[in-house]
Known about the structure:
Blueprint: E1 5-9, H1 16-26, E2 39-44, E3 62-63, E4 72-75, H2 87-98, E5 102-105, H3 110-115, E6 123-124, H4 128-137, E7 142-143, E8 149-151, E9 155-158, H5 163-176, H6 178-188, H7 215-222, H8 231-238, H9 242-253, H10 257-275, H11 280-287, H12 292-303, H13 307-314
Parallel strand pairs: 1-2, 1-4, 2-3, 4-5, 5-9, 6-7
Antiparallel strand pairs: 8-9
Helix pairs in contact: 1-5, 5-6, 8-9, 10-11, 10-12
Amino acid sequence: MTPHRVALTVTEGAPIFEIAIACEIFGRERSGLPDPWYDLRVCAPSGPPVHTGSGFVPDTRDGYDVLPGADTVIIAALADPPAEPPAELIAAVRAAHANGARIVSLCTGAFVLAAAGILDDRPATTHWAYADDLGRRYPAVRMDPSVLFVDDGDVLTSSGTTAGIDLCLHIVRADHGTAVANLLARRLVAPAQRGGGQAQFIEAPTTEEPAASLAPLLDWMRARLDEPHTVDTLARHAGLARRTLIRRFRATTGMTPIRWLTTQRVLRARELLESSDLPIDRVADAAGLGGPANFRRHFTLAVGVNPSTYRRTFHPPGAVEQPAT
């Protein structure tokens, strides 16, 4: 098999963290992961070697001319987002997009995509501190500064810093399935899945008493995804008032209780579709997503494809395919 070609762009003074995220996830082979893994090329502008903001000189053996031939192009964060991105980089990104590459920005790398016109009339995000500036400079972008990342098909953008890990794991999940993404997340000691719609700001007051933690309730919910739950029943189980539960859920997860529950149910359904021979209606029941129509609606909205298509893509080799309902 020909490995998926990933071109990661670096610019002078770029923050090292976002560069390292992409290198760690796409540029390092690990036991237990698909072989071949990704073919990562770190690409720099023509001229003298570039330095990161931390003073490191990345091993950039390729230039921006590699971008038009890549399958995925990742634009790392910029040192000075308010400045106009390099024209050489903008042109290469446009060419890659025109050739059908998947275009990804980490943090303020979204400014490059916006300057290239790729984000026009598309939903996108970037670090909250720069979202207003990007929106003013590029009003055609449908900027959402509240989310961790946005997947708009062939163009994906992430918010600040650690959200780049979430987006890169999301890409691995889309390419290789939930089991591979979860294995990689465990190796990175990172959350297996924080949905793109989760808030950038997670309010977690340090003064909160340990007894007020939602961790026991979240674990209890994960173990009972197939059971019916409402905000009222969850509040009663936690011994909290309804409004208190909702407030603490938002502060802890950035979501409402029901949205968090639906996200976990879809994740469970993905795992079952990949790893089991259960008929699709049984998967819906086991994940707590109700009948086939409700299951298809929630799954397709979250994943982008229906359950049958997802199973055909990620069903384990040799497993017996069950008819879809």
